[in-house]
Amino acid sequence: MEATVNPNSNQLLKQIAKELYINNLELNKQRKRIQEVLFQVAEIIFSIDQKFKIVVFNSSAEIAFNISKEKAIGKHADEIINLISHKNAQPIKTNDYAFLKKDKVKKDFGDPIIVKKESDEGSYYKLNFNNITINSDTKECVVSLSDITDEIELDRKKDEFISIASHELKTPVTIIKTNLWMFEHTLKSKLNESQIRLLNETDEGIRRLSKIVSNLLDISRIEQGRLVIEKKETDINQLIEEVVASYKDLVHKKNLKLIYTKTRIKDTYTDRDKIVEILDNLISNGIKYTKQGHIKLKLSTSTKDIKISVSDTGPGIAKKDYPRLFQKFGRGNAGLKQQTLGASTGLGLYISKRMIEELGGKIGFSSELGKGSTFWFTIPKLYTN
Amino acid sequence: MNKKYKILIVEDEASLRFVYSEYLDMEGFEVIQAEDGREALDLVKTNPDIDVILLDLMIPKIDGIKVLEKIRSNPKNKSIKIFVMTVLSREKVIKEAFDLGADDYLIKDSLTPDQIKEEIISLLEPR
Question: What start and end residues bound the annotated signal peptide (chain A) (predicted)?
Fold first, then answer.
């Protein structure tokens, strides 16, 4: 039997073949374009499969890791890519981040994740990764490394400047403070009311200036990783009482109450100066924002921790401000305006958080608009070295 | 404070040296002053009856740490109480000073002269 070909279907096949050919050309063109972009960008880009084998390796990666893509593809990523975390100076291997949840990785290695190459300590890179699904059983992790050496260097210079400037500021601030105290001490009985007021306001001004300089110094220490922790046996109870006593005048002036009921606990092993500074930050915040009522300190313990909380009857904190409360300059633009009206630098909570983390504790808060806020922190109970 | 204590104030900032001296003199101390490390060491040599020294650590000619080391290296000075002073707290240098025999440290920025006096008295006359 002879096969019959329908002339119409023949025509159709030709048409389909032609369209396929054109589509294919277009696809190829697009693929080439994407490949060119991927391969020519300044960023180091590579991609790995679920067995951590390299499947994509761009030109910048070839240069950075000194290996051609032909040689790199198919190898285990850790054979070629040797990175060190800037945060903890430990090697960061592919399985430390690839195919994992971003939040977890950022918690361990910082946000942004900053790395150095093992072979080149001078350059810094920001590491970004994306877990992508190619199809139902193929997943890949695309990793990019952007060179941020210049930004890091600029940041370092900024910290260095702050450090030098605040060191230099400390001496004149101390001179003004001490001289002013001497004036007050020797002349107070001879001054009239408005002169005493002037003296008090100057005193308050210099106290604030001094606090700002201290905050800036703390920040530069923290950012440069130079925060020194010196733990020793500390009577927390006595320490709180001392700090509370130092606020007697200020609290009296503002017609507020600062309440602390003694709670007996054993001495613990911690950094006394840091605890004083954190308490100072929390209490002075409480006093600053509270128009009437009280600031109350409470000490409690659990099996592992000592918890200190500072509650006020201030205005409370709006929900929208929660996320940036513990950030550097956390009060944002509104903060700057308040600053000129007599608040502090917006650095206190950030500094407190960083310090308490160094001491192995936690810091947090709860707040209700119109009722007040409670800031608390914990330190581990440590009785021996 | 019944006894009149002799105190050496070593401080290069003239203004601070003046205020500390004035105040402690008013409070009944016998005050002598030095503005640099060399002068401090000379005064320690010629004044064997010094009870206490306020020693700023950042001073010209011979720095405070060296001065402390020199004073403590002579057993004759064993009974002198030495406070080191800085404008900054928590510096490594404070630890170094303790290791070299400082009795205590004072953060100038956070203490008023009367508080400094209290610190001195509580070291000289422990309860």
Answer: none
